[in-house]
Amino acid sequence: MSELPPKEANLFREILKCYEMKLYKLGFKGAEQILKKFPEHGETLAMKGLFYNHMDKKEEAYEFVKKGLRYNLRSHICWHVFGLLHRSDKNYEEASKCYINALKYDKENIQILRDLSLLQMQMRSLEGYIDTRHQLLELRPQNRQYWVAVAIGYQLTGKPELGIKVLTAYEETLKDIPSTPDYEHSEMLLYHNSLLEEAGDIQAALDHLSTIEKHVCDRKSLKEKRAKYLLALGRLGEAEAAYRALLSINPDNMAYFEGLRTSVGLGGEKLSAEEQVKVLELLKGLQKEYPRSNAAKRLPLRYATGEAFVKIADEYICSMLRKGVPSLFVNIKTLYTDKEKEQAVEKLALGYLAALDKSKGFDHSGPHIEPPTALLWTLYFLAQHFDFKRNTDQALGYINRAIEHTPTLVELYMTKGRILKHAGDYIAAMEALNEARELDLQDRFINTKCTKYMLRADKTVEAEKTVVLFTRADIANPLNDLVEMQAQWFSIAAGESELRQKHIGRALKRFHQVHKYFVDYTEDQFDFHTYCLRKMTLRAYVSLVRLEDQLRSHPFYVRAAHKAIECYINLFDHPEGADTEEMEGMTEAEKKKYRNKQRKAELKAQQEAEDLKKKSIANGDASKKAGGAGKVDEDPEGTKYSKVEDPLAEALKFLKPLQDLASERIETHLYGFNIYIRQKKLLLALRSLLKANKIEPNNATLHEQLVRFALEVQKSSPKPGVKAVIDQHWSTLYQGQDLVAFTAAFLEKNKDFGSVNHVISAAQASYLISSSDNKNSKSESLSKGEKLLFSIQDDQYQKTRSVENAILVQTLLKKWRSSRVQEWNEKAKTWYPRATAFK
């Protein structure tokens, strides 16, 4: 049945209004009333299903909507409702199909066309989006949103010139333009201007600014654009005046300083001696004009050299130390790319300390006595300076002296923790941060930093107890509050800690949390497709859409994805559990002892988990009574993530976004190789190697993977077609050398750089090559790898040695079951006496 009697038809219209006004229970009652008389009315059945959906009854919702479609397959309402149901489940593909079916029976339905266009934008089906928006524009040509939406569609498809034509046509229809600036009209005009800029017609964009100036609210943006366009057109005199006007508004904006420098003909990274003098004169004049501008004081340090730099740095650093600016070193350290400047800063700072100790002033010859805090901040600066140089003993000496001077300053303990972290003593670093935290228990930032240091030290329980001090107290599991707040830093740091402890399930659980955060960010943009058009925040909207398109190239996602891939590769390599890796090479007695120890640890962990679950349930019940959230973690160990049938297929889910959005990073292709080579997909593995080789042909890890690939090809005997493709690229990758010569050439090539990472890669490659040769015994293979690893002791590798790569060598020796692990530990201890890894 499709038609209702007048009384019920009026009631049905009331039901539709109830849905629009979100009165779902009232609408549900109305639908029930109609269905008592007309149980086969398809549209009412569909609406009842829609109300069920908003009452969190998904099964009933789909059942009634499908029933409604069966009774009235040609109803646009039934199809529209079915689309809304799919849309609520984020199934945008199916939802758009339903909307398209709905439009077959009501081609000019504005609401359905709008809903379809939103889905098309969400899915980035931009050609379809433009078509749909054109239909809406034809139906409602007086609606500004529809004109603008078409222009945005053209811009996002790389056709800004068509967007300009659309906006120009709309502006020609306007009659009553407000005499005073109107925000929405202003934003549309500025958006039009941005399209002109994007189309590359800078002169037209500049002329357009003059035309729209009296209608624009955002005066600062107008001035910035004018200055930018004048500079791009080479009208340097006018650009200089424009940038000087901008500096009078904000004399701390670095971009304005750079624009001014370029407009006076002193642009470029490398300046001649004459140009340096002119730049310094320019900045000196700006310092007088804006005496409170920190940027004007800081910029001369970038351009000055030699004695001029020493004089300016002396003045700048003294001023900052006198004021007690904690961020001084952060401002200065960017200069350390120039070794001469680094040495000059060190000499100045040491001179200040000596003078303060002797005469309480920065200069021996001057009578001026500095405030007592000057000594404190000088020690603080020197501690950070020597920590940057990884001179741990000196850095600790200065920071300890600073703590003796002022034992209540939080920043000192945080810096001490950072120094100890760089030295590899994660436990002592954690303790230093905890001291800082206890000095100010109300500071959430310090609490967060302390938690991160605890996780780095793999003190997971302590970290969780610390971080929940700033979560809501009325929920069953306070850690869930961090998930709700999408605290990525905690999920990543906790996941990495669990991975180091071989708790693969728990680690994956954390990395999947990060994955879900990014899924949520993608979903959250949906509402902005209507909001931004309604409010005319068009430039911000286009930026948002473009940001969303690159979202998974964000460092947080990349980091979590890399670690998740490592977890899944670990699960594939050790299907019986991570402990099988630890037991390789052990005798039966040692294995038994190890298993007993692990079993006791597991029982203890299970007991703690049970206690926590009971406590969570109890807290949840209490929280529910108090009106709070009572959600209990049903899978604290992350079993559903670790017990998967195909770990490599799961790893690929994390890799695919990286291949699309972070393809310029070599790590993406290195991780891709690790997955494909295990899947025996040689051509995909080859593709990853070729892409990695194009990005960074001298990468240390790449060399090891090239060796692994060659050995796999030799072992697997690929099909003729696959072999032909591999042969085609073989000479590009291996330069016609056998693997031994290839590794020797790689080592020789990097010898002058003294790179420890390249030596480690060559050692692994040599070990793999020797192990693959049946003529060699295990001890012979091990000897070749060990010889290379221990060559890192040579003085030529001193500059590139670090705690991290020393730990990597230790890990390799353990993996190879080398008898020289203790020998390495003793040697590493002499370089990094504080590092806990070698104790």
TrEMBL record:
SMART domains: TPR. InterPro entries: NatA_aux_su, TPR-like_helical_dom_sf, TPR_rpt. Keywords: Repeat, TPR repeat. Pfam families: NatA_aux_su, TPR_8. It comes from the Eukaryota. Residues 599-614, 631-641 have a biased composition (Basic and acidic residues). Residues 579-641 are annotated as: Disordered. Gene3D superfamilies: 1.25.40.1010, 1.25.40.1040. GO terms for cellular component: NatA complex. This is N-alpha-acetyltransferase 16, NatA auxiliary subunit. The lineage of its organism: Eukaryota, Fungi, Fungi incertae sedis, Mucoromycota, Mortierellomycotina. The gene is NAA16_1.
